[in-house]
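ugh ok fine here u go
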Amino acid sequence: MLNHAQNTFESGLGQVRLGVSACLLGAKVRFDGGHKRNRFLIEELGSHFEFVPFCPEVAIGMGTPRPSIRLVGDVEAPRALGTRDDGLDVTDALQAYSDNRARRLQGLSGFIFKKDSPSCGMARVKVYSEKGMPQRDGVGIFARAVQQANPLLPVEEEGRLNDSVLRENFVSRVFVYARWQALRQQGLSKKGLLDFHTRHKLLLMAHSPVAYRELGRSLAQLDHATLDELADGYIERVMQVLKTPASRKRHVNVLQHLLGYLRKHVDAANRADLVGVIDDYRRGMVPLVVPVTLLQHHFHSNPHPWISRQVYMKPHPRELMLRNTL
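structure:
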């Protein structure tokens, strides 16, 4: 099942595609013949992304319904055995499919996994010892292969998307990675790389001012390094930095930075309003969308070409309302 949503958020991106565990999209592929339809994915994200469904267990020929499996043995390299019949061993088939498929995900900009699944769980999956004792520090066989083969790919599992901070952070990372993929597809150039960095300045500052400065210094070596090698190191660092959600304190620093561009263009009363709203956000009295929207209002009346291109001002579709709860 594919969702053919058209991206109207940002020109140049085309359709942004997400890999998703098929059961989360309502497909009846679970071991018991059921599904785990996720309302947020289908009803909210579905309008902005194209979903590409995966079910590794069905893909290797296991039926629906089918005997359930669990991970057993070494946490780093567990076996996938039958829950009730440990004579059922699908490890090799599941690993072969996972390794092969994980190497062919170039068209995806993110992946959402089913939590706790022995094939698709992203983290804290139960791995049983030979004596039958579980420990929650495993990774599903397919999810591990996807992450190892695609270290830059933003990944999450549906349970963690209930957290508003992790949800916003994941969607933001997906769009950053989609922009990077579009840049590489168009043909990498020094100008394009510098422009990408400039557009993401405030977003990077909200996550790590130190990393932003480090990345800027690395790009200063453009005339003395191979473009592809420098670009590979650059995006690896960017995606690593963005994995840690931006803190309220760092958002406040960025908001105050934005306010600096308006000081000469708004009167004292409006400046006081902006300062007050930013302080309300700092104290947790209003969500992030409030000061950002007010700043956008003033920049609409007082356009600034650099600010208008900043991803931070609109990192993802407004309709998702992801900043309304931050």
